[in-house]
# Entry
Amino acid sequence: DEVGKRIHPEYLLKYLANPHGTKPGTLMPDLLTALTPAERQAAALALTNLLVGTGTVPQLTSDLQAGQRGQKLFKEIGCLACHAAPDDPKTASKTAIPLGNLTEKYSIPSLAEFLQEPHKTRPAGRMPNLIQENKEAADLATYLIGNVEFKPKNPNLKFSAYHGSWEKVPKFEDLKPVKQGEAAGFDLLLAGRANDFGMRFEGFLKIDQDGDYTFHLGSDDGSLLFIDGKKVADADGVHPHTVQSGTAKLTKGMHALRVDLTQGGGGSSLTLEYEGAGMPRQDIHRVVFLTEKGPPPKSATDEVPGFQFDPALAEKGRVLFTSLGCANCHQLKHNGEALKSLVAAPALKQLKPGQGCLTERGVSAAVAKNGKGSAADLLDAATKSSAPVPQFDLNSNQRVAVTAALSAPVPMAALTPKEFIAQSMTAFNCYGCHARDGVGGPARDRNPLFLTTIPEMGDEGRVPPPLDGVGDKLNPQWLQHVLQNGAKDRPYMLTRMPKFGLPKLNELTAALISEDRREGAPPPKLPEAEHRVKATGRQLVGDKALACIKCHNFGQHKATGIQAINLQTMTQRVREDWFLRYMLDPLAYRPGTRMPTGFPEGKATIRDVYEGNPAQQLSAIWTFLKDGAKAGIPEGLIANVIELKPEGKPILYRNFIDGLTPRGIAVGYPEHGHLAWDANKLCLTLIWHGRFIDAGKHWEGRGPGSQGPLGDNIMKLEETVPLAVLESATAEWPKQPPRELGYRFKGYDLDKDGRPHFHYSTSGFNVRDFPKPVPHGKDANFERRISITAPNPVSSLYFRAAAGKIEPQADGWYTLNGDIRIRVPGSTPVLRESVGRQELLIPIVFVKGKAELVQEIAW
# Structure
């Protein structure tokens, strides 16, 4: 499909006439082998006209700097694993897949499009996608094509380019063009920029017979089609590629054609097809010419004698395409439907060794018998399904091997998982980068060309990792993702893992798991709540324990040493069972790795965490890393930390705090229990233990962004003001912001110990919210005293002590979301279901206009 937009017509003609001579080693068979050179050329010309009718190859002149960038890309991102560099014969080893004459075959834009979407053209997936953006594809294509100065060989339109921004197609006749000239097709590259431009194309449309014709105009952004000065199709406006159609009654002869386009931002495209008077829908460029005189006369110096798109020859090509067997291997849509082959292959058991394509020179049985061989005879024979025998240019060893396979007495047994893995890795050339079972890895002549940005990492930082045990190591979902979509988990390694995009790779994933999977002991039970386990894991990863952050990045935070693989994606990529085994002895899983063990001879080097139990320590690290991007930043990772340490008295920090509105107030207490209170929502939003907060983000430079707590066991407690008047105990808790409900923040005051008492009020009552830390082991819990005064009686006032998943415990305690314990002594709580979650409500009872309750919070 659309091969006419990818490959030069001259190359198509040459290749079809002599596939093995044009590209030695190609799997494309020669179907015209029985013909004389002149007859072969005639048949190839018919097929070429069919294929060329699918589009026009866009053109672009080479850019020296783009070519230099492309050369660098080719030698860095992994192209060298399969292909030899065009300008470096030293890498042309026996394992290189020949590129062929790309300059003769492609233009820069058409090769760039192929490199960016190889699976669109080659759905088998063996050509993977390594390109990440349009610019890279253009740079790489420029390098591979080489120095090309484009001058349209067969211009068929005049163009005018305009620079500016319009929401609708303007009247270009009132504007001054920045550039004018001749174009071959709707070449938008001639505008000289990617966005904010307009173009006008003008030519003459040749109509062979009177009739009604429908035109299909497609563009991104807006476009208009005019024939003989009358608007026929309107696709104006700002939009992605959109096709609009229009009909015109045209007489035989030449008609003035004009297409106007405006392009804003994003992608750009312009297409025009037509149909009518017995003509199928097709690209219009083959019947559009530069002047009213039509196509220029042929010159004796034309590279392709007689080549000019000919609908009659294209129809003969269509017959050949279906009758020769081309449609058995290739898809080509005609009038929206794929052409179907008229050639059916016999069953394998009917084949006779030494005959047909296994002869030294395949010939057509029908043509050989008749003693003819003209192009007309070929077409006649093909139409009657007596297609020529394909010539695959097999050598004697290959013919012997195929003959032996056909002569085998029984079908081959199904491949074992190990055999299937080896076959797949060979077919997709995984061995060009990766080793497995002692096979593969970069060839000796290419090995030095695999590069890294961190030379200190050695081969581990530049050569793709071995795949031994990969089915045991990676999560099945991640393994499948990597094979289908590629990955860039090792930014220091310039070679990229490509995107293969082939559904059959599901089978490879299953085979790798079947062959490699091991199961170790189940994860150990840990002696504390999960949030405390995460805090322990964070401590172990930090620079005062196992110091994983010395080598490994943590999200956007760079390691303090070499920049090894990111810890935040660890649990997404690898299996927990493998991780627990690997960390005890990395060298057993990857010989030569620089990864040390913190557990020499299976013993922990950190003795004061979980009594030095290696399994529990590793499980704590895994539990911490499971939070991914939400995990707290390990200690020692952020440079220029301005840590606020509440020693002796609390510290109040009023700034932008993660999870709060801009009116957040963080309070750090010497007891190592801290909170963040929201003055907009009038609630206690966050509580945490350990370290208080880092002021570096706000106290350095312009101080942008929000800052999260520096400590551990971070819990979200309330999302809005916890006091509300309800019509009944079953009424829904108010959703409006507190200010809309009449609440006003009245500031705070400090007691003699520097602890804040927060104040707010409504028209009916005043509130004082006083959270006080209570030491508990090395951390602290909170005792929160809520005092309410009301000048007039207030009924149906409730305090919402908790909202989420709530479970009653002994002694009046309740657990919130499995992590926080809450109790309100002396109250009669109401536990209810509301809006898909549970709420714990405390009715407020006033005595002489006053009410008070104490909320105990432990976690």
User: Anything to note?
Assistant: The two ends are 64 Å apart (CA to CA). Residues 300-306, 362-375, 381-385 have pLDDT under 50 and may be disordered.
